[in-house]
Amino acid sequence: MKLYNTLSRRVEEFAPAGDVVKMYVCGPNLYAPCHVGHAMSYIIFDVLRRHLEYRGFKVKHVQNFTDIEDNIILRAQAQGVSVQELADRHVRQFYRDMDSINVQHAHAYPRASEEIPAIIEIVQGLLASDHAYQADGDIYFRVRSKPDYGKLSGRDLDSLIAGARVEPGEGKEYPADFALWKAAKPGEPSWDSPWGPGRPGWHIECSAMSLKHLGETLDIHGGGQDLIFPHHENEIAQSEAHTGVRPFVRFWVHNGLMRLPESEEKMTRHLGNLIPIDEVLQRWGSDALRIFVLGSHYRSPLTHSEEALQAASRAAERLRLAAALEGGGNEPAVDPEPFRWRFVEAMDDDLNSAGALAALFDLAREINRGRDQGRRTDDAQAALRELSGLLGLTLEEPAGPDRAGAGPFVDLLVELRDRLRAEKLYELADDIRARLADLGIALEDAEGGTRWRRRD
RNA sequence: GGCGACGUAGCCAAGUGGUUAAGGCAGGGGUCUGCAAAACCCCGAUCGUGGGUUCGAUUCCCACCGUCGCCUCCA
Fold first, then answer.
1. What ipTM score was computed for the predicted complex, to two decimals?
2. Hey, where are the domains in chain A?
3. Which residue lies nearest B1, CA-to-C1' measured?
4. Does residue A152 lie within 7 Å of nucleic acid chain B, judged by its CB?
5. Does domain A2-259 have CATH number 3.40.50.620?
6. pLDDT average, residue stretch A421-436
7. What is the mean pLDDT of chain A?
8. Which of A77, A163, A212, A415 is the most interior residue, by most CB within 10 Å?
């Protein structure tokens, strides 16, 4: 398949270097719960993984948790709990969120706090090779020791410094140097090291964890576009300086960011302009969220909106009904293969999920048409379910937990209404239908009997 | 200020140097239905503005306008 590589700024033909695709995706900082922006990113990499597997590649997927860092330490102190406790709480929430949006679990979820020895080893190596230096117990990476520093984000050191946003920093030799290890301050969690008690800087954890779990060269390293600089730039510098192996990553893949219509700024936790994952799920369901996300290209920014989710929700219903409704007959079967071909071709083209979805909707129409014509549709419906699954769609009705338990009562009303209709008491029957519609229950009088389903 | 991305029908959004510019949602008409719904059929785009390259550009180049991202924690 073809995949855009941030490093080359081009779409390239993708294949793993070995027999397994080594894929590392930057995970969340555990200082707060994830929001739909995270969901967007993890859905996209989930779909990338599913497609690679469909294409016959074996994928090893690793995602980290950041559980040492300024924000999480501050939050824990503010809430009067340990960093560990706060992190654990958000890890549990993370797994619930991933399950609810049908994201396949990674094969490993390393945590920074559990990889300290590996981190220390790398820092030692960088010190020994003069790529790093010590200043008051802090260790900094010497950015000027890497002539190609800036190659991922497309910037040179002069313009970085001229940008004036770089903090000169206490003991730094050079303003753009970044911390590998920070000396402990009072009250902070710390670990023993050859340089005294301290904790790792932010970027080094990913270098250590990817090296340990996947090796010196990754096939794919993913994350949001906001991580390109400085995080991923610094990872490259550290990792390549440490191992001497180039490239650290063969394909850098970055997703566009989600934003809110009011602010038109990206959604991010420190701005507080965010929407929790479960809020979207409870209202619209997982399939609607995925159709919303996958309906545009993964590298484009996406604006969160009620209208877009509403539209995606209706679209999900369309696919669900096409896959589920029975009928048809023994006329020649509907052939799903042309649609499968279109689907795969779109996905192969830099993960064009919008094009793949379009193929799915066309297949749905073909199924519906075939059913009207008395043709066999079971194979086509099976294909629709299978291909939907490659996008992580369940084609199941959203749970709607607030109405749980209402089912039997709706059944009762529907049954009573059917008797009214049999008596031709249409006014009453229509009134029941209208009142149920107000409550979010849609009725359909089909030949085999009345169907009902939830609808906003 | 530096680097980068985007601007396609009412809304969301693919895509292509040249036959009819995907798909979803919303809307209008029709078929079906007791009436609806679902489904099916039909209907909508001078592709931000102005130049340029070309036999021909929405697609390539330049300028401008607008929006956004990174340059600081960030998916």
1. 0.96
2. 2-259, 285-390, 402-454
3. A163
4. no
5. yes
6. 93
7. 93
8. A212
